[in-house]
Amino acid sequence: MRVLAIGAHPDDLEILCGGTLAKYAKRGDEVYMAVATNGEVGSIRHTREEIAAIRYEEAKRSAEVIGAKLIWMNYPDEFLFNDKETRLKFIDVIRQARPDVMFVHGTNDYHPDHRTAGQIAQDARILSAVKLIETAYPPCDKIPHVFIMDNVGGYEFEPEVYVDITDTFETKCKMLRMHESQDELLRHMYGMSYVEYMTDLAKRRGEENNTQYAEAFRSLKTYPITGGHYLLP
Known about the structure:
Strand order of the largest sheet: 3-2-1-4-5-7-6
Helix content: 40-55%
Largest sheet: 7 strands, mixed
Strand content: 15-25%
Oligomer: single chain
């Protein structure tokens, strides 16, 4: 199986579906991690150019933990917009990965980049198979099924299905710890522990699923529905 997860920022995927991606990779599936923005404003001591380069390297190291392929889209952090050029880029990312299943942000998450990335990805999944829309990669031969990832903190999200990530939780933590610069920023701004914050949500979803740790998802309920919960690992 081919799996594509699209996150707005470096670290979003690790927080919201890292354990699930690790399970896919563990069983031998081909996993792609696409990151829309470059994290260029996520620092208290580096320039935009410096932190963007740092966060790219951190994202690469995280993907390497599970042997995933990183697709770095390099849009400006905090200024992701739904326009023609961006939609074409998302279409091309889907065509590059040619996924059976996609994981995307919900359109009611707290962050505008999350909402925008989620909406574009949902809109682009059908267009990725339209032959007369030309991009660098050829059109997909099928439309992937889409799972909506949990919102950050679990707010305003009603889970439909859970993935038990108890066996890959430590891998999820290892992936997240690769994002050292973001951990530094969050400790400075909010006095919070990056991994502890993620762990709290994984524990809460685990309790709801009668497991130790879990991640929560919903299937995209728009035409055409091309898969189902059986596509989860």
